[in-house]
Each structure stands twice: as structure tokens, then as C-alpha cells.
Amino acid sequence: MPNVFHVWNSRDAFHLRAPQGPVELVGSTTRRRNVIVGSEPSLVHAVDQVLNAWQDMVARDEMSEQTHDKFSLLLKRYTRYATLRGALVLSEAGRGITEDFVNAQGRNRHGHISESAFSTRTVRRSVVRAAFRTLRELGLSDQDPTRDIVLPVRTYDGIRALTEDEAVMLRHHAAFVARPTRHAAAAALALAGGHSGELGHIVVADIDFPRSRVWMHGATKYEPRWCHLDAWGRHVLAERAAHVTAQHPDTTTARLAVSSRPASDAALQARSCVALGDLLRRIGLGTDPHVKPASATARAAVEAFETTGHIEEAARRLGLRSLDRAAGIVGYGWRTDPACTDGGMPDA
User: Fold this and answer.
1) Which domain holds residue 106?
2) I want to staple 129 with a disulfide (CB 3.0 to 4.6 A). Which of 146, 158, 225, 230 is the partner?
3) Rg of the chain (C-alpha set)
4) Do both 15 and 105 map to the same domain?
5) Considering the domain boundaries, does residue 158 fall inside one?
6) Which phi and psi (to 5°) does residue 104 adopt?
7) Are 131 and 205 contained in the same domain?
8) Tens digit of pLDDT for each residue in 267-278?
């Protein structure tokens, strides 16, 4: 243990003790403190830097306010938990502490202590993973204590949806530097709900900027539809539209995610997949066998379902004709949903 000097904001005594027995995550609070540690960043200082970076991402619309609030809350819980386990400097927040946090028991909808649900464990891991990715970008750490924490994977046709933190990182790394790129446009359209076979056909005239939406043309398996654009997607596509129309003034033929040169449907789809694949590799998902360009599209369905609670909204977002297929994509097992199978009314 390195030598640590604590500067407390309270005169009350505080004793650091590792928890014994089963661990439960509850809304306990820990007094705010600053920790000064030799040459290693303290865990508290590092987390503060992450929160500041995330706030900057919110300002650039790469992370929504809702995601920021949720991630910040969970990251602060992780910090309290790790501190109680004796992790004072960043390097001590290793896999063991992190895995215990991810799998810690919680309270179910009836208020009883129970094993945490798959979705709860997934979001805990996502938040810690996002935090350490941010620390790596800030040059404060090169570790990832979530790397070997394996959770069940929900896939449909061998593909899984991007998690919330992965969608944030996709937006973050898609940002253009010198000029608006087709990569950012492809990411914005896919995260809005566009399939790879649709992305290459979308032109500037398909964007309704006043209403923040884009017209998806549909395909053999997908219905034509309007898809909502979030603030980041609207900004990226506005910049891309201005860039391409400066070179190709006809908005009805100026494509956003690929070149406006004539090409077959297969070639347009391949170019869109290449752009998305480049971004997925850039954020470290190139070796995940379940992550494909369609994973970004599936994320739009997950968000629609999480926001509304209606599987039909997820189906509409992707232009699907089958609710069962939509349920499979978002990982919703409606046949085994306790709210619908326990003989009682769903909880409020």
C-alpha cells in the first residue's frame, strides 16, 4: 500500500473496512475527500477527471444528458465500493474488485435482496469500461479491469446490439477532424435505425432537419419509414450535408454515407459496411465475433424499446414486420417476462 495523505472535509472519524460476506450495493454515501498520492493518481482524482471528460462529451452531444446522469451515478457508486474495499489509488481498482461490483447483489422490484439481473450487471460493466477507456484517452491509465469479466451475450442471428457505452464511444471516435467524413455520417444513420442496405441510398434531401428525422428508403425485408435523429446525429449530418452539397449541389443525388458516384446496390452496401467496420475496429470491437455493422442499427431498436417500453416501437424504428424479430434483436424475452407470466398485473 503506498503512502497516502488524506484531506478530509469533515472532522468526523471515518474507518475504512473491507466488507465481509455477501456484498449488497445500496445507496450509502461516503464523505467527499481529496487524496494526494505520491506519483500515482488517486481513484477519486481519476474519477473526477472522467466525469469532467464526460461532461465535455455531453456538450458535444456525443453522450446524452440521460446517459451522463446514469453513468455518473454508477461510477460514483463504483468509486465508493472500491474505496471501501481498500482501493485508494487507481491501480488498485483491479479485476477482483470490479468483478465483485459488477456481480454484487441488489434489490429487486419487491425490495428484497437478490442476484442482480443481467441488464443491471451489463450496465455496471459498461460504466466501468467506459470510465477506463476515458482514462486511457486522458493518459491516466492503461488498464481495463473489465476485460476478462464475462457476462452472457444476447445475440440474434449471431449479432448483438452495441451497449450504451459502445454507442457513446462510436459517436466520440466518429467525430471528424478536418472535414465531415462519411464514417460519421454512416454512424449517425445506423444509430438512427438505418440498415447497411439503406445507408448508401440516403441523400441530403432525405434529411428533415427542422424535425430532426431522416427518411429510410426501406428494402425487401424493411419498411420505408422516418427515423428520429438525436442531437449528435443531426449535427453530424448537417455538417456532412453542407460538405457534400458544396461538391455536388443536387440534394436529390448527393449521398451522405458514401460517394455520390453511380454504383450498384451491393457496392453501396459494401461501402457502408466498410465505414462502420472501420469505426468499430477503432473503438476496439474488431475482434468481437458478435459485433457487426448491424450492431449499431440494433442499438437504435434497444433505445426505442428502453425509452417507450413497447416492442412495436423497436420494430417501427428498424422497419421490421415481425414483433418476434424485434424482440429477438433487443433481447426481450416476452414469453418469460415475469410481468406477463406470473398471473398478476405488472408492477407500476
Assistant:
1) 4-138
2) 146
3) 22
4) yes
5) no
6) -60, 150
7) no
8) 999 999 999 999
